[in-house]
Amino acid sequence: MKKQKKTWSHLGTALALAVLAGALAGLITSIIVSDSIDQYILSLQDNRTILQLTDTQREPLPGTYEEALMGLQDEIWPSIAYTFAPGSEWGWTEFQAIGTVMTSDGWLLFHQDAFTLGSALSRNYYVDGTVYQAEEVVTDALTASVMVRIDAQGLQANGLTETEDYNGGEMIFVPREEWAVIPSVVASAHHHREDIGSITSAETMTQTWEIVDWDEMPVSIAFDPAGDLAALVGANSVHAMHEVVSFVNAVLRSGESQHAGLGLYVRDESRFVQDVEGDQASYAVVTSVLGGGPGALAGVEIGDHVLSVNSESLDRRSGLGEILSQYRSGDQVTLAIERDGELQSLSVELGVFEDLAY
Predict the structure, then answer these.
(1) DSSP per residue over 133-159, as a string?
(2) Is the pTM of the predicted complex or chain greater than 0.90?
(3) How confident is the model at residue 194 (pLDDT cuts 50, 70, 90)?
(4) For position 294, what pLDDT does the model report?
(5) Distance CA 307, CA 287 (A)
(6) Rounded to the nearest 5°, which phi and psi values hold at 6?
(7) What is the dihedral of CA 59, 64, 67, 71, to 10 degrees?
């Protein structure tokens, strides 16, 4: 109770109507639940499609904040998945972590920290009153996420919210074991260029989230006020859904994780440079090029400034990793780079991130 009191004191009565809902969002969820997996996968062919499904205007619910919060709990709880130790009976004392149902035919999504005490294949899973064993497990080499397949049909799946539009101060709700959710706040988002000296692979997502009382949160998931999935909450990191959606899409399409790869290490810069038309543009500095990788084969060199991919410019909202997440291996893209003060265009056939020798 300490956590709820601490967080609610920040919210005040002005947030009494913060929990929102819409008829369209509920309709879409029911369609996903009842649709076949093939139709669901078709809706994911464009990464933006599933995000737009829940991008609707919602009217505030009547009643007090507490009544609205209870309504949210009733809405999301059938789609919550718990993991606990093999051989143990279901119960709060054996509970280890919380995930969520992604498809009606049994794909579950967890933060990888849910499995620090054992492999995902050896865990038991509790969903809406039934205990299951894992049939298949897919882990992501790039983000801290794990997809688990159980033998189930007709589960209630969750919609995904468009987390790229979040700003610091927006509300989220984190389920915990005592049949309750912890109201919290996104303390900061989209601050990925604050650490100018950070060098990462070109494919690494650079938008990050911090949430209030993160160090006290369980390994769980987070929902927005409308009941759509917003983030995976782990012991060591919080991953907003814009990071994870390409992994989810790949698993539903092909049953495996696959990210498009450039084979570069880069440093995102926060200062701006002028492009040829005089507009402001940010860039990523190439600090290392993997031999034989897609970038190297295309002619990218150490010191190049990557300005855009297929004319989509890097900016304070979308780093190189965010832009690359829209593509698949084998796609041909054009990099706009600045080298020694001159602009150049390089054509790159993207490889498989998991195959690169990072």
Answers:
(1) EEEEEEE-SSSSEEEEEES--SPPPPP
(2) no
(3) low
(4) 97
(5) 15
(6) -65, -45
(7) 10
